[in-house]
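Quick note —
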Amino acid sequence: MENSLIADQYLAGLREHLPEFDNISLSYATGATPAQLAALKNRFPACPDSLLQLLARVNGTYHQPYGDQTISVLVLGSDVFEYPYYLKSVEQILEVKGYNKSIRQIYGSYMESMPELVGGGIDPDVSIDQWLCFSECMNNGGTSSLYVDFNPGAGGVAGQVVRFLHDPDSFKVIANSFDEYLQMLMEEGYSFILPEEEDD
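Predicted structure written out below.
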């Protein structure tokens, strides 16, 4: 499947599964401009085409302004089903987040007592700001984030999707590529989408 097609297929399926209110919110979204996408590609030359195509259609759902509307729609998931995720906009992705240290620099000697901290295929000595953070969870970041990792460790694949989860902290590869990640969410039937609360 071509990268542009998987982005379109993902969004079409998403709209079929989202609650009506979220679909209305998502209808206000527009895509990133060619200049914005070029800036992202300049910062992350190996940015997956399918992620660029997704952003070309929806430039973020993470408290993202579109004209006089600001939308907050959970459109992504991970292996942690109780935490759906927002898609960050190009501008948000390019913002300096402050993680200019590696996992080893952040956790130091604690790594020895945290065997689950770093999953297979992840290099703990790569600065986290070299990863592309495309998503934050429903708790507005901090609890869990999703990254594209271009500098894998032994057994990893460049472009793999890494999920960070806080308390207890862990970094885990959940897909070998962004395409595979989207395909996984589709095959799971967009199971991350929270059911609508019924009125009493």
